[in-house]
């Protein structure tokens, strides 16, 4: 057994200590048994790539520009796979999540500033997810938006119950909800009769993507895809598997199968985002340019003048069910991310239930204020959700740049696990390009 010398123990213990190293993995090296054992964390990460923010941009992109922006969805997904690979590798190899690693390599004052910005980014992420869940409850059951926002607080109680039953239960419910979303949109796309030739052509980048109006929507899709909280989340939950952290070969096996898990689940997220854009293109292109809110999309799916012959209340109801599933999934992972960041940056140790209520409550308050302020105004909460994505653009470099730097460092990762020159180059290009595109998005919006 070759001893792994680069494992770093965090002074205050691992993040999510109650679930760290709790999931057994097989001792033998059967490929499929290992895939099954390591499957799960990737699903929680993939949720962030199919949250309500992605819905608006993907369906809106299809409604306005047909299949043109499918290439943007593809490229964004490939970048996501690269960054999530780095995040999981950082956690598995060093024993540190991204928040802990960042805090350990920065001064106290800078670390505090980075924590504040990252906490605000998680709140911005949660805003879109809470809004999506509240709107879904309103569409399905007529529950007022204010009460729908309040009801999302109880997601924390569900999460606490699942944590008592084991982390695998959380993974199972998230995977189930992902399947619900994929089945719903798979069905809706199938009956919408998309143009297969145009769809395949859309995966090849076209020069029209760089036209001003199309570029704005493309940047929106990219900005809604790569989110800061996913990098913190993955670097922590990748450590839930019980591997020998002092055995270099066992660490390498964990990295390998964690990467398989992540790429498989992100491929599912790519399929769902593709379905969203194809649905927008097949049903609404040329007749649904004004579709900018969840309510308008819900109404359009049962409007024969917009969705055509396939329009029906069933389609709109399924849309709302999938939206609720997306909101529920994302709120679970958002709460976990809040805990990881709080523990990693400031070592705040409070009871588990209190910590989860704090992280959840901080996110719900601004949404609740917005729901009261925009009461009765069409699209008010949707507008708040879109603005929250702008702040995510600002916060993105704070997580991406340290991640690429840490995983490219031989001192931190060791010679065997540091990024290869090609991976490091792709990582820096992705970080610089995404940061630049998001800055441009902010400038264009204002």
TrEMBL record:
It is a multi-pass membrane protein. Its main location: membrane. GO terms for cellular component: plasma membrane. The keyword Lipid biosynthesis does not apply. GO terms for biological process: iron ion transmembrane transport. Belongs to the NRAMP family. PANTHER family: NATURAL RESISTANCE-ASSOCIATED MACROPHAGE PROTEIN 2, SOLUTE CARRIER PROTEIN FAMILY 11 MEMBER. This is Divalent metal cation transporter MntH. It comes from Pseudolactococcus plantarum. The lineage of its organism: Bacteria, Bacillati, Bacillota, Bacilli, Lactobacillales.
């Amino acid at each position: 057994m070759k001893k792994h010398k680069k494992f770093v123990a965090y002074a205050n213990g691992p993040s999510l200590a109650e679930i760290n190293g709790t999931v057994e993995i097989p001792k033998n090296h059967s490929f499929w048994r290992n895939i099954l054992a390591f499957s799960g964390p990737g699903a929680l990460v993939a949720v962030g790539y199919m949250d309500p923010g992605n819905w608006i941009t993907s369906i809106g992109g299809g409604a306005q520009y047909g299949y043109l922006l499918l290439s943007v969805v593809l490229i964004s997904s490939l970048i996501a796979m690269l960054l999530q690979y780095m995040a999981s590798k950082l956690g598995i190899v060093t024993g540190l999540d991204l928040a802990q690693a960042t805090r350990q390599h920065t001064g106290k004052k800078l670390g505090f500033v980075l924590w504040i910005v990252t906490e605000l980014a998680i709140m911005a992420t949660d805003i879109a997810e809470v809004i999506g869940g509240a709107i879904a409850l309103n569409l399905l059951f007529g529950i007022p938006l204010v009460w729908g926002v309040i009801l999302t607080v109880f997601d924390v109680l569900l999460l606490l119950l699942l944590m008592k039953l084991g982390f695998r239960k959380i993974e199972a419910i998230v995977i189930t909800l992902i399947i619900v979303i994929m089945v719903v949109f798979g069905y809706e796309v199938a009956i919408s009769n998309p143009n297969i030739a145009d769809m395949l052509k859309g995966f090849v980048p076209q020069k029209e993507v760089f036209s001003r109006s199309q570029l704005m929507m493309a940047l929106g899709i990219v900005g809604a895809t790569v989110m800061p909280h996913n990098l913190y989340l993955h670097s922590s939950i990748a450590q839930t598997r019980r591997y020998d952290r002092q055995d270099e070969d066992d660490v390498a096996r964990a990295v390998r199968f964690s990467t398989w898990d992540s790429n498989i689940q992100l491929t599912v997220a790519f399929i769902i985002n593709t379905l969203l854009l194809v649905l927008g293109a097949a049903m609404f292109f040329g007749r649904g340019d004004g579709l900018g809110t969840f309510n308008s999309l819900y109404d359009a799916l049962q409007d024969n003048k917009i969705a055509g012959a396939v329009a029906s209340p069933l389609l709109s109801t399924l849309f709302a069910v999938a939206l609720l599933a997306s909101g529920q999934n994302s709120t679970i992972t958002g709460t976990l991310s809040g805990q990881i960041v709080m523990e990693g940056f400031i070592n705040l140790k409070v009871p588990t239930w209190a910590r989860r209520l704090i992280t959840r409550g901080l996110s719900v308050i601004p949404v609740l204020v917005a729901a009261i302020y925009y009461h009765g105004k069409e699209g008010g909460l949707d507008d708040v959700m879109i603005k929250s994505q702008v702040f995510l653009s600002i916060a993105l470099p704070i997580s991406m740049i340290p991640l690429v730097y840490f995983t490219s460092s031989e001192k931190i990762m060791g010679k065997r696990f540091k990024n290869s020159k090609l991976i490091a180059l792709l990582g820096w290009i992705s970080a610089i390009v995404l940061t630049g595109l998001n800055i441009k998005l902010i400038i264009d919006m204002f």
